[in-house]
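User: I'm preparing a small set of examples for a lab meeting where we compare how different chains pack in three dimensions. I only have the primary sequence for this one, and I'd like the structure in token form so I can line it up with the others. Please keep the answer compact; I'll paste it straight into my notes.
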Amino acid sequence: MHVAPPNSISKRYTEKIDAWVLPLFEQNWQLFAPNPESVNQQISARTGRISKNGTSEVSRWVDLSAMDASAVRHSVFPSHTAQNMLRRAWTSYVQEHGGDDRSHSDRARMMKEYLRNIAANRIAGDRHGTFDTIQLRVVTKRIPPPAPGGSDSRPNGRVSHETRYLPWWKVATHGR
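Assistant: Understood. Below is the structure token output for the 176-residue chain.
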């Protein structure tokens, strides 16, 4: 129904069909004419757990974006998933939540769970030990437009950026 030509049934159920298809099975033509990025995003995660003696333990930040970049850089044929899964999950999360990090719809809750699960699975695959919560940090750096005349200089030599910390999210215990 999602890829079929528009008809009365697909038009009537577009919202429900899209809720199942997007973001996991989205199809687009950006492979042939991608939109250039206007920002670079560094998505990092850290984990937390309560130790056996009752103290709270928080891990160091792990750069999930660097994991993706490394997987792409060292692969002759990098997968579309390795290149875009985390970035697209973040973009969809922001579209659904705005700046308040509250899920106001089923789709918003799904995008939160999707982003959380990507981060938790990558962290679990990267380190030993267990964790019960996870927090994400997203540093967004604007990509300045090219300077006139093709020079690579930036205005005032500065690049604007912002850092956003998401709330701690509970996860199923991950461990080895």
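A couple of notes for your slides: The longest helix spans residues 106-126. The radius of gyration is 19 Å.

User: Perfect, thanks.
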